[in-house]
Amino acid sequence: MMKSFAKIILKAFFYSMFTLIIVAVAWHFNYINVNFDTFLLSDEATVVEEFVLGDYEKRPFYQTEADYEFIKAFNENRDKYHLDALMEYYNKYYRRYFRSGRLDVDAVRVTSKQYPIIYKYVSFACSALKEKIPRIYLTKDDGPNIRTVYWKDPVLIISANLTWAFKPEELQYLISREIGHIKARHIYYRDLLQVFKQVNEYSIPGKLVKWVDTGISLDFIDWFKHSEITADRAGLTVIGDINVAINALIKLKLGANVDSYYGQINPEEYIKQLSTIKEKSRQGLFGPLLSELRSNTPFLPVRMKNLLSFYSKNSNAFK
């Protein structure tokens, strides 16, 4: 009985401390003031003057400025707000799955001797972007999916469905996107957002949880969108073929391979769908806005338009 009570007190203490950290971070970065303009992500790329891959905490040429500045601002305050301690606690209690060996039971680890072709794709992307090879696992997920988790020791998880739904060069692009996330240090901040949501949900009562969580979440969602643009460009940096990149993105959105029987996607025609979205917004219809609010990623036509623009304006980097 006493042990159970002590655990409750200890848990309440930890959540109270984390609540103070979150409120301090929210106040410092002005996240409590919700700004819906954050969703107006620019779909135009700029000309890059120097094609550098970047070292640690230095901006690679494919990383968007908004993505880089967001991470830089947080890095400057990690010690001040004890964010690493917060992350350690999260990884200890919520991310055991990726640290305790369960993946070795539930999935197949990819190595130079186990699915060596997939391992070669990852190795090639890491070599191109100057990043260490992460742990790699092949899983039986529902639908084609690929993701990177666990910031301290990144784990690349690939759905087995990707091996048949995508051509080899398209799979190479999708893998390269994930290595781009690792290179740009996105995984830490994706995990940090989950920490904010977990702690807010259980530690801050009533309306305050919505007030703080909404402000932080909106700003993080805005950053998520820029981080996806960065990853799109990183994948293109590795493969250098804009058609492969576009096809991979649209097939990932559809969750199926359609080009074998019905032809390739027409990027220009697909991007025209943006005009419909903008027209509905001008008419005061909230469908597109609500869809944007629910999504961590920009609309796919925006991503494709940005990637095509980035490719055309910086074509020297892909020769």
Please provide a written account of the structure.
The chain is mainly alpha-helical and 319 residues long. It has one domain (2-318). It is 61% helix and 5% strand. It has helices at 2-28, 65-75, 83-93, 102-106, 116-129, 162-165, 168-183, 186-203, 206-239, 242-254, 259-262, 267-271, 273-282, 287-294, 300-313; strands at residues 108-109, 135-139, 146-149, 155-159. The protein has a four-stranded mixed β-sheet with strand order 1-2-4-3. A hairpin with a 5-residue loop joins strand 3 (146-149) and strand 4 (155-159). Helix 5 packs across helix 7, helix 7 (168-183) crosses helix 9 (206-239) and helix 7 (168-183) crosses helix 10. The radius of gyration is 21 Å and the shape is globular.
